[in-house]
Amino acid sequence: MASFSAKVHLRVVESSAFGAASGALVADTLRQKPDAVLGLPTGNTPIPVYQDLLARQRQGLDLSRARVAMLDEYLGAGERRISFFRWLQEHFLEPAGIGPERVLRMPSAPLAIESACAAFEAQLAAWGGCDLQLLGLGLNGHIGFNEPGSPQDSHTRVVPLSQITRDANEDYWQGEEVPEFGVTTGIAVLLQARRLVLLVNGERKAEILRQTLEGPISSAVPASFLRLGREVWVIADRPAAVHLSPASMQPALDATVTPS
Ligand code: F6R
User: Fold this and answer.
1) Distance 145 CA to ligand 1 centre (A)
2) Vertex 46, ends 7 and 224: CA angle to 5°?
3) Ligand 1 centre from 123 Cα, in Å?
4) What is the pLDDT of residues 99-153, one digit of tens each?
5) Strand pairing partners for 182?
6) Based on the number of CB atoms within 10 Å of its own CB, is 147 exposed (0-12), middle (13-18) or buried (19 or more)?
């Protein structure tokens, strides 16, 4: 099983600086590689990050060659309103001018979904893999739709969504019922990303962030597997970091690499 020795770069920032601190890492990747492949999530956490990137684009950040791989989707989303693809289009892809030819869409049609998931991974590999994968943190420790119990060697696949995840997702769709199944990039694929960036804000994520960084590395908290990634960044706002021990906070104080 692939495992990389990694140091987690933790940056704890004021809530008002959360989008800019996270956007700085994406901008840094794009400056090094203008056609970088960015793995992108949906949800509440990345909204300030997408807003920051759009502001940087207005100030000259080149997104004209950036490529995007979706992180996850609802099974059966298709062209429906409740779709992560639509969400991503609205919040980032369309305003950034990133057209469909530069987007690797997560498959969602139930028919032949397994082969479509394999084709998704093959296309991601043909693009050279993910240069930077952004991730939000689920209240139960999920990343993408890798719910608790997801193994380290998991690949892109259909997963049943837990009730806690479905309830949290209702927030994105004004309370409309969320599908029972999702399709997600697996942990093994996420760990291949050259740079992993976990975004965590708000005090309600503080306990699960502590378990992610300080608890055992185990499928009980899938986000803990990120500690095995190649280059791992955690951007947390102060409320999300309140339960972290001084030892975890040390790298944050060291401010290892600080792209601006
Ligand atoms: C969404 C995704 C999920 C979310 C997570 C946190 O594409 O992959 O893992 O990142 O559920 O959601 P928010 O950011 O809404 O708290």
Assistant:
1) 8
2) 35
3) 24
4) 999 999 999 999 999 999 999 999 999 999 999 999 999 999 999 999 999 999 9
5) 74, 159
6) buried
Residue of 18, 38, 49, 72 to mutate, ligand 1, most atoms within 8 A of C-beta = 72
**What's the distance, Cα to Cα, between the start and end of the chain in Å?**
34
Residue nearest to atom 12 of ligand 1 (CA): 43
Q: Are 47 and 87 in contact (CB under 8 A)?
A: no
Active site residues: 72, 140, 142, 147
Distance between CA atoms of 176 and 125, rounded to whole angstroms?
35
pLDDT tens digits for range 220-249: 999 999 999 999 999 999 999 999 998 887
For residues 37 and 130, the answer to whether their CB atoms sit within 8 Å is yes
Q: What is the predicted pLDDT for the residue at 254? A: 42
For residues 78 and 74, the model is more confident at 74
Closest CA to 238 of 7, 5, 11, 78: 11
